[in-house]
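hey m, so remember when u said the tokens were messed up on ur end? i reran from scratch. heres the input so u can diff it against urs
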Amino acid sequence: MLIRYIYTALLAVASPFLMWGLYRHRTGKPCVGKRWKEHFGVTPKLDCSHGPIWIHAVSVGETLAVTPLIKRLKAQYPHLRIVITTTTATGAEQAQKLAGIAEHRYMPFDFPFAVRGFINAIKPSQLLIMETELWPNTLHTVAKANIPITVINARLSELSCQRYAKVQPIFDMLAKNLTHVLCQYPDDAERFIRLGVAKEKVSVTGSIKFDIEISPKVKEEGQALRNQLGNNRPVWIAASTHSGEDEQILSAHQEVLKDHPNALLILVPRHPERFNDVFNLSKQKFNTVRRTEHNHRLLDNDIQVYLGDTMGEMLTLMEAADICFMGGSLLGDKVGGHNMLEPAALGKPVLTGPSYYNFQVIGDKLFTSDALQIVKNKHCLYIKLTEYFSDRTKLSIAGNRASIVFEDNSNAINKTIQLLFASSYLRQ
């Protein structure tokens, strides 16, 4: 109790700075606007006879990952009402694409009064938390209202486990409110149990990110884009890049162009507020065009970099490429990589830097199957790219192996729904 009071006081002090980061206007990024009150629990009421399922996904990545689960839930249980919450405006923008299936609200800040306001307005029957977004006051307030809390697609790295162990009383405070923890892999489950979560509360479902749905529309749009970019030129994509990586990627591309003068790089920064900066950086040395400025005609052969400055089109851009380098992996331990399953689902060979601990198990599976190559620096990135571009058979084999890994590890969504149904939460 005392720990939570101290935490709440510290949160109150820090909240103005957190709100500044969340609400300030950024070029190319959507804003919360008039809906800011929802962060404080003043949220539109939901009119339904049975309490809806409340699913929390922090931002864009988590919203994209949980979307197939939401669609499957609605298809199997049409009577269910689903509310999805996000913290960020970019997540909200993505969640709005689920209109008609799930209703979006902003996640209340982790103050008891805000969470109580949300619960009173929505009256959820249960809370599903995507991955490991555990907030002390939210968990306490929801559990106190007798609402079951399930963590889905849960992951806990060894590093995070060791950190929690150093503050065991805080983790115990969080864990006691959890009804069920559905883990991605046995290693994750073992770590939760090691930290004191009751064994009967922990299950393994696999990663629902393996259940990415590649719609025919994505394939069609990706192939149409490739036709515009040029079918007879080597094309690679650097996806979800961060500040400090773009320079390395562009340097590698400069070397690739010496061996393959007509090669094209699709460069997609992780955060939309960086679109302009990365565009200006690229055009210093390369003929660069922005996707938002592309007229959808055949791209000129002298264009060397194609900047992906749109949201929600990552799969389309990946489909248009031959090879995918996944960003967030060349910056030491700062980021820990991003989802390598998206290019694998599309049958693309995957390259990553040495830091991919956020997707360690997935990366290791792809690496063991020779579908993933690890590059420790920009020179190694250049070497692997030229190897693939110079040997189309090798490129094709690696892509096929990526598809096999993806297919062999699917079905996590069905396992998740079965466990939720077994708990009777969905039998309303």
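this time it looks ok to me. DSSP finds 17 helices and 14 strands in the chain. if urs says something different then somethings off w ur setup not the seq
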